Every structure is written in C-alpha cells, then in structure tokens.
Amino acid sequence: MGQYRHTISNIMAMTDDEVIQKTTEVNFHQEKRFHYFLDKPKHKVGYRLNIVGHTSPVGQEILFVGSCQYNPGMNLNDFCETIKALLTDIKNRGQNIQSVRIVACHSGTNGLAQALANHINMPVKGSLGGTRICLTTEYRPMSNISRYFIDKGGDRSHSSQEERDRQERHDPHYGMYRWYNPQIQSLDSDSEFGEFVNQLAQRPQPSDSGREFDEFVNQRVQRLQRSDSGREFDEFVNQRTQRLQRSDSSREFDVFVSQRIPRKNCR
Q1: 123-175: per-residue pLDDT in tens?
Q2: How many domains does one find in the chain?
Q3: Cα separation of 209 and 167, whole Å?
Q4: Domain check: are 250 and 206 in the same one?
Q5: At what angle do helices 76-92 and 112-120 cross, to 10 degrees?
Q6: What is the pTM for the complete model shown?
C-alpha cells in the first residue's frame, strides 16, 4: 500500500523512532495552497507524488481544493496543469517521479485520477471512497512528534459509534484506493497519413503538375485502403519527389512520404 499508510492502532503502538520512520512531513504549494509529499509505492518504480486536498463528489463538476484556509480551488484543467508543472519542478531537482496519488475523497470514482493520468501520461492512484490524512499528535498526545500519515481504515476502534455506523452504511470503500493508468488514444497510421496529405493537397501548388498531383492525392485520400493500388501511389509519389524542386512545406511532405513508402501492405 505504499509508505505512510497505517491504521490508527498501528500508529498508537509505534515507538517514537518508528513514528519518525513510518510517517511523513508535508510540503506546501504556496500559489494554489495545497499540501504534497513524496513516497515510494510498493509495486511501482521510482518516487510517487502525493497530492493532499478535497475534491468533488461523484456526478458533480470535478474541482480540487487544498486542505487549508483561503485556497483558490482549481477546476479540472487548472489542477492537471498545476500538477504537471509541479512534477517538472520536482524532477528538475533530481527526483525520479513515476506515479501520483491523490489523497482526496472519491478522487478515483469521480474521474479526477483518470483525467490526471491521461494528462501527465503516468499512473495515478485515486480513492474509491472517503480518505483522510491524519496528524500523529491526534493519537499520540503525549508525544511531541508532529507528522502525518494516511488513515488506512479497517480499524475503527478509536472512532465514535456514530462514525463507525456512518462509514459502514454510507462509505464501505473508505480508505480504499486503486491505480488508474493513462488511456491515450494513438492515431491510426493511415488516418494520420491521410490527414497530413489532405492538408497539404489543399495548399496552392505553383504549376499544372502540382494540380495534377493534388487531384491524384485527393482521390487517394478518399479511399486509402492500402493494397496493390498502394504501390501505384508510392511509385507515383516517388517519381514526383525525385523530379520536382519542392517548397519547404513540400519537402516536409517528401520526408513524411519517404518514411511511408517502405511500409508494405499497411492494411
């Protein structure tokens, strides 16, 4: 489950040295006023960035706010861009960040973790229900060690009966997390090729031969089913690129096509 995630009973049973080793301090993002810290997940390589705050319930517009006063709050795009910039800053300081966890209620089920994973192209762990980060002095009042841990749940012996009943009835997934991997759609190579050619074919060409080429390409783009006829197209383009002095934009097209020609039977 990663570092710094414990039941309250475990925290109370630890020695002071164990508390220092198994809990964490938090950093403060001054501009957006939220807290964060780093740890190492058990089943992922590298360090993980943990973002602490509150987010909206399932079915509402996704928002995120830090768990401190006078924070501005962030919509989905602002949140993703802020975390992306923070990751860049931390990596520039020498930390190998490979994943993220959002320590905020429903950050998995409301879509925030998946949206962030897609935006930063790395795994993000989100909460399936309620979650919270606790201060050690709440449960170790005789100790002057003030550090933080994530409540693992499961053990509710130190909660009131009302809170235990509420969690059992309304929040059965309290303290539970899951990973959300990036879901980035890759462009189909033929679609990418067709779009590139179509854009180029719409540009003005300097001669009649250019218009002939445009007409041929436009016909080809409409069907772009690469088979035996694809070799006819490759041969035509190859002859064209070898005998014409092309403009800068056309030379870009030549490079693209030269890479494309050796590919056989794309479909």
Answers
A1: 999 999 999 999 999 999 888 899 999 998 766 555 666 666 666 667 788 88
A2: 2
A3: 74
A4: yes
A5: 50
A6: 0.65
